[in-house]
Specification:
193 residues; Protocatechuate 3,4-Dioxygenase, subunit A; 27% strand; mainly beta
Length: 193
């Protein structure tokens, strides 16, 4: 029996809006993953907004990237079927909010394992990338946990700030801003998985 090889990675192409984020771009079929991971009608106490922009080498906000996030819930579990108003996967294109923002409605996750800090996994798909890139989003208020996180420790200390989201609003809803810089002096740290 012949062993089949892995399908090679491909760029996101011109059809991601139709196939991966159709509702955001006003197509008439449902998205498998949306930017809303936490249902605000079921849980307002823990709700946060994670927003940001994707910047190119010239500091211009990219209008055709797609961001995908994965995270555990507040109990440290991945929910791949909507469960009590939470779903662990979200997707959003950067071309649907004025100013080219991405914006996710979610919660601060629990740590996935002991010794790790709460984190959100983020994948970036966009033109010019031969393959998507992975990064992690950490929260500034977990300073001690961040210092002990085994993945964050892999990153040079002077570059760790590219992985830490900043709270820009505390009420009525907590809003965190996490900007991705694809190249240049502020380049975000990306991981091999």
């Amino acid at each position: 029996m012949n062993k089949l090889g892995q399908t090679p990675s491909q760029t996101v192409g011109p059809y991601f809006a139709y196939g991966l984020t159709p509702e955001q771009y006003k197509f008439d079929h449902k998205s498998l993953a949306t930017p809303v991971l936490l249902d605000a009608n079921k849980n307002t106490q823990d709700l946060i907004i994670l927003r940001g922009k994707v910047y190119d080498l010239h500091g211009e906000a990219v209008d055709d990237a797609m961001i995908e996030i994965w995270q555990v819930d507040q109990k440290g579990e991945f929910q791949t079927k909507p469960h009590q108003g939470f779903f662990s996967i979200g997707r959003m294109g950067t071309g649907t909010i004025e100013g080219n923002w991405f914006e996710f409605t979610t919660c601060i996750p629990a740590a996935e394992k002991p010794g790790q800090a709460p984190t959100i996994h983020m994948i970036v798909f966009m033109r010019g990338l031969l393959s998507h890139v992975y990064t992690r989003v950490y929260f500034e208020e977990f300073k001690e946990l961040n210092q002990e996180d085994p993945y964050l420790k892999l990153v040079a200390e002077e570059r760790r700030n590219t992985l830490i989201t900043k709270k820009v609003q505390d009420s009525p809803v907590k809003i965190y801003e996490f900007n991705l810089h694809m190249q240049g002096e502020k380049e975000t740290v990306f991981f091999d998985y």
